[in-house]
């Protein structure tokens, strides 16, 4: 009697088992940040490493698939990491809530050297890095007045803004964003109550007075700036929404598109903490309480938890070297990317 071997079903079971095991292993090997206060800054460095700055838990380095965490115990000047940069020599600079730290590939250290002897000697070089003052609020005794630190590859020097603070200005000139290098050789600095541009020879100051804003119209409270590929400067505020400056005039994008809460009756585009542009030219906005918004040049679309986002508060939007936008959220939400229709967690 001929008996046929039962190989077919056995192979199918084996294949199914392998697929299940593979999927399970992939899920287990997924890289997940352990931060509970949120991701505030991101940098992909020249060596392919990825850095994640937290709101209040230090910084994390992703190297060869492994996460390494640094805090004040490991050389950070402060556990809040607002911005991360890399200089022309490959040194990583971390702008913390208080002070600066550097990473040379082997160790983290607080950077303490400062030069205050040339406060009015503004210069502009392509490889410059710029940083806020050393304190979370106000100015230290040697800074004294509003300004920024410039690192030219050799030393860190404090430069004073050409402004005269008034008694009621409060935190008007405290730096609140990362610096932005524009297409026309201008560097933009975002402060809570003003956006200041320097082109190597002069300054452009966009403040409440210049924009015609006051207590009735709503005033500047800048939390993000970004220049798009067309040279438009986008200014995200915590309160009056997004302003768009084309070099000649400023328009309130939020009001123009009826995205104030009084019109939307729900999520709005009034509290904008991050802005980015994707490879297709779409402009993305991360908000404090209304998730993410995308502007395609014609219409604006809102993305929330129903679209895969676990946080309504998006601290940062970062473009990777591959052109992918990464969205860093508050609390334990991690870092997300947009797959074309919804959001997926990446880190």
Quick recap of the structure?
The protein is mostly beta strands and 347 residues long.
Descriptive account of the structure:
This protein has 347 residues and is mostly beta strands. The protein is built from four helices and 27 strands. The protein is globular, with a radius of gyration of 23 Å. Residues 1-29 have low confidence and may be disordered.
Strand order of the largest sheet: 1-2-3-4
Helix content: under 10%
**Average predicted local confidence, pLDDT:** 92
Sheet bearing the most strands, described? 4 strands, antiparallel
Shape: globular
Radius of gyration: 23 Å
Number of helices: 4
Distance between the termini: 60 Å
Q: How many strand segments? A: 27
User: What structural category characterises the helix and strand content?
Assistant: mainly beta
Which percent band covers the strand fraction? 35-45%
Unreliable spans are 1-29
How are the elements arranged and paired?
Elements: H1 7-28, E1 39-44, E2 50-54, E3 59-63, E4 66-70, E5 81-86, E6 92-96, E7 100-103, E8 108-111, E9 129-131, E10 147-151, E11 156-160, E12 180-181, E13 187-191, E14 194-198, E15 203-207, H2 208-211, E16 222-227, E17 233-237, E18 242-245, E19 250-252, H3 253-256, H4 261-264, E20 272-277, E21 283-287, E22 292-295, E23 300-303, E24 314-319, E25 325-329, E26 335-338, E27 343-345
Antiparallel strand pairs: 1-2, 2-3, 3-4, 5-6, 6-7, 7-8, 9-10, 10-11, 12-13, 13-14, 14-15, 16-17, 17-18, 18-19, 20-21, 21-22, 22-23, 24-25, 25-26, 26-27
């Amino acid at each position: 009697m001929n008996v046929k071997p039962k190989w077919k079903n056995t192979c199918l079971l084996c294949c199914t088992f392998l697929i299940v095991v593979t999927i399970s292993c992939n899920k287990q090997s997924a890289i997940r940040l352990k931060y509970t206060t949120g991701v505030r800054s991101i940098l992909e460095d020249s060596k392919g490493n990825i850095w994640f700055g937290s709101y209040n838990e230090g910084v994390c380095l992703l190297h060869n698939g492994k996460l390494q965490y640094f805090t004040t115990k490991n050389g950070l000047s402060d556990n809040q990491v607002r911005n991360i940069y890399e200089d022309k020599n490959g040194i990583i600079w971390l702008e913390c809530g208080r002070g600066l730290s550097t990473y040379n590939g082997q160790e983290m250290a607080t950077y303490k050297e400062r030069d205050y002897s040339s406060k009015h000697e503004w210069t502009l070089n392509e490889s410059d890095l710029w940083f806020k003052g050393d304190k979370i609020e106000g100015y230290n005794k040697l800074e004294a007045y509003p300004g920024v630190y410039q690192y030219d590859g050799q030393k860190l020097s404090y430069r004073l803004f050409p402004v005269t603070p008034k008694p009621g200005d409060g935190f008007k000139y405290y730096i609140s964003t990362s610096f932005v290098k524009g297409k026309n050789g201008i560097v933009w600095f975002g402060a809570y109550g003003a956006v200041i541009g320097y082109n190597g020879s002069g300054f452009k100051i966009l403040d409440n007075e210049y924009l015609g804003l006051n207590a009735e119209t709503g005033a500047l409270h800048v939390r993000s700036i970004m220049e798009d590929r067309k040279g438009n400067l986008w200014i995200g505020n915590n309160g009056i929404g997004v302003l768009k400056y084309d070099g000649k005039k400023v328009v309130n994008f939020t009001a123009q598109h009826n995205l104030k809460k009084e019109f939307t009756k729900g999520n709005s585009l009034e509290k904008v903490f991050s802005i980015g542009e994707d490879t297709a030219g779409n402009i993305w906005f991360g908000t404090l309480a209304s998730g993410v918004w995308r502007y395609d040049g014609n219409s604006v679309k809102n993305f929330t938890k129903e679209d895969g986002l676990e946080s309504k508060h998006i601290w940062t939007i970062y473009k990777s070297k591959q052109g992918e936008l990464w969205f860093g959220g508050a609390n334990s939400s991690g870092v997300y990317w947009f797959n074309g229709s919804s959001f997926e967690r990446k880190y």
